[in-house]
């Protein structure tokens, strides 16, 4: 599995700019390289995933990892603080609403979970939270899944 990270790293060097970031599914910290590791050396809780650099707004971001059935398979520590209930195993639709564009959100998440590259941004609301958030939907892995990163917006 670390082979994918190595390939991403090599490509990054050739392009002089990182083509992917390596991050922990739990603490959300970034790592320079995985080596043969699959578990995060920082927190010992999460697995190491990679995604495009624009997929995450920052280190230790609030995010959920979602499978092709639109079920949450991992949540970062910041994401756990954002969702009012235990999000693991729940459907994304029960946690995040795209205000009349739920079908579009579901379509983008399914697309990312199937590995189609690119990052889509949608304005969303989070169950039990006031205000508007921006969801960034991108592919991540391994294993292949959708990364849904959430960031608060002014209105
Ligand atoms: Zn970690």
Describe this structure as you would to a colleague:
The protein has helices spanning 2-15, 77-82, 102-113, and strands at 21-24, 30-31, 48-51, 62-66, 72-75, 96-97, 120-126, 132-141, 145-153. With 155 residues, it is an alpha+beta fold. Strands 1, 2, 3, 4, 5, 6, 7, 8 and 9 form a nine-stranded antiparallel beta sheet that branches. The longest helix has 14 residues, at 2-15. The termini are far apart. The chain binds zinc ion (ZN). The site of zinc ion has 9 residues, from loops. Residues 24, 26-27, 29, 40, 42-43, 45-46 line the site of zinc ion.
* Protein structure class: alpha+beta
Rg from alpha-carbon coordinates: 15 Å
N-C termini distance: 41 Å
Strand content: 25-35%
Uncertain parts = none
Note the total helix count: 3
Helix content: 10-25%
What is the chain-wise order of helices and strands?
A: HEEEEEHEHEEE
How confident overall, as mean pLDDT? Answer: 90
Give the overall shape: globular
User: Which ligands are bound?
Assistant: zinc ion
**What's the number of extended β-strand segments?**
9
Major β-sheet annotation: 9 strands, antiparallel
